[in-house]
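Methods — Computational structure assignment.
A single polypeptide chain was analysed. Its primary sequence is given first, followed by the predicted tertiary structure written as structure tokens.
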Amino acid sequence: MAGAMDRRLPELIAEYEVPGSALAYLHRGELHEFAAGTLNAATGVEATADALYQIGSITKVWTATLLMQQIEKGRLTLDTPVAEVLPEFRVADPEVTKTVTIRHLLSHTSGIDGDLFLETGRGDDCVEKYVAACADLAQNHPLGVTQSYCNSGFIIAGRVLERLAGKRWDDVLREGIVEPLGLTHTWTLPEDVLRFRAAMGHIEGAPAPQWGLMRSAGPAGLICARPADVVAFARAHLEGGLLDDPRAMWEPQIDIPNPYTLGRQWGIGWILDEWDGHRVISHGGNTIGQHAMLWAVPDTGTIACVTANGGHSGAFTRAVATELFAELDAITVPAPLGPPETPVEVDASRYAGVYERAGARLTVSLRDGRAWLRHEATGELAALHEEPVEAALEPVDDVTFIWRPDGEPQGTAVVFYELSDGSPYVHLGARATPKTA
């Protein structure tokens, strides 16, 4: 496969309009690295295997690992209330303020509205200031009743680490993971990253208007690394080196209402799935025009990390995984969910309305008997998005639809569902969004 990937990676980045990519994988104890394309379309700097990419939300598994280290030291448990470590912590719901736990944060079940991206400055107190600003955050859903991706929860988790260690999250990360594993190409601050080759994100083929997210998002998504370092991190989860019992992070915590996008369940930090009867632990990450994916198959020991700095990056990384795991382990990666061969008739009128959470407004309407979904970004990152995106919803069954905006090579699954109290929700992009109108 090594020789084939030298050829296939350039072919795949061309097919999916990705400016540049790097890939590292571990198979039978041997590390393989590849790169293709450019790090920056404006400068033409060549992509190399040692260049740093923003791995985005894969960072969350690192933050979860750091908290599990503290748990193994007996300093807290998964069921310790956040307020026990951070007495000043507040969200809008006073009961959630008192009872939300570390487990809720690390499994995306807190219900805290999760996409508050807030500029709190470049100082070492940026995470502390962010958590103080969470006092007005409403509940996206009641505590513990469903899963909804929560960046805010992981930034709060990062502040828990800072309080326990008396240090910046960045320093806790270096001392707890980066240095013990000897990772030389893993950093969090741009002034460190620019000492290396570093990827620039691209939007619609051009360099993004800004390089990275605000520093306060650190514990949720600001690690920059070469893929080989990310593979080394995952290897420690399979073979040991960071935790006494890394498998504790693979225990299912919640079923994902929409199992067609990332996986079937969430563990502690990790996304859990099954391919061809093999357990798979994974996580992905997206920042401003950058994307990364990490997969590990415990029973074969195979690990892969692939990065991309623009283009149809989600479809690209899936294509890489499909070819790679078929060749290495004879594992078939499930194909993306698509409309059935025989169209189904669904009365979608009951789903019409507005669904809203921090960062997004989704509007479902009916046109000539078909359901359409309009996605509009809101909040601090809205300026980085183009006009709202809309497309028809193609039914798969009574609650599941495929949404494929123009120009996208594959569709995205959308699931409508209700909580136990009958409250209507839509699950898209790993997030539960309540119907508000």
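Note: The CA atoms of residues 177 and 242 lie 7 Å apart.
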